[in-house]
Inverse folding.
């Protein structure tokens, strides 16, 4: 059986990504979430008397952090193609989530352009469903460019850093 807070968190994550539909089966329960433009519904065997109306579940009750900078998804095309020609290693996001450059808002970033890294160096955190996942460099070298901004939503497989490997 799915818990209300799990359903809300899944709705929030789906709302922030390009995923149009999510279907999960767990211990005999089935949950389907679809974005507007499709037949929109949340389906799960639940005791209706213990949960709020579906309208409350479908409306996220969160606000982005005030310190989060505006997200700029556009990347300069020429710069990216120039760096791709240098055969730089890309550190990519292993999941959908929120990118954090530092362990806390008051702390300095794990790495920046020019930082030396090894295979085990933590380069950032990707938060998914309230879990903070430390991402390691997986290559020895020097960070050439940080491709995303702190607090930005990232997709599975999205490049986060370019590294000149040694």
């Amino acid at each position: 059986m799915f818990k209300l807070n799990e359903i809300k968190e899944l709705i929030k994550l789906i709302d922030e990504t390009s995923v149009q539909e999510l279907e999960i089966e767990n211990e005999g329960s089935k949950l389907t979430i679809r974005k507007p433009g499709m037949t929109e519904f949340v389906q799960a065997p639940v005791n209706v008397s213990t949960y709020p109306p579906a309208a409350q579940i479908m409306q996220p009750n969160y606000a982005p952090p005030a310190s989060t900078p505006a997200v700029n998804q556009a990347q300069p095309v020429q710069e990216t193609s120039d760096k791709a020609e240098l055969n730089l290693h890309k550190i990519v996001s292993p999941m959908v989530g929120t990118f954090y450059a530092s362990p806390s808002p008051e702390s300095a970033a794990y790495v920046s352009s020019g930082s030396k890294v090894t295979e085990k160096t933590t380069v950032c955190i990707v938060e998914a469903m309230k879990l903070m996942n430390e991402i390691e460099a997986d290559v020895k070298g020097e960070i050439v460019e940080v491709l995303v901004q702190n607090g930005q939503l990232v997709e599975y497989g999205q490049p986060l850093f370019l590294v000149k490997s040694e």
Q: What stands out?
A: The domain at 77-165 is CATH 2.40.50.100 (OB fold (Dihydrolipoamide Acetyltransferase, E2P)). The chain has two domains: 4-58, 77-165. The radius of gyration is 19 Å.
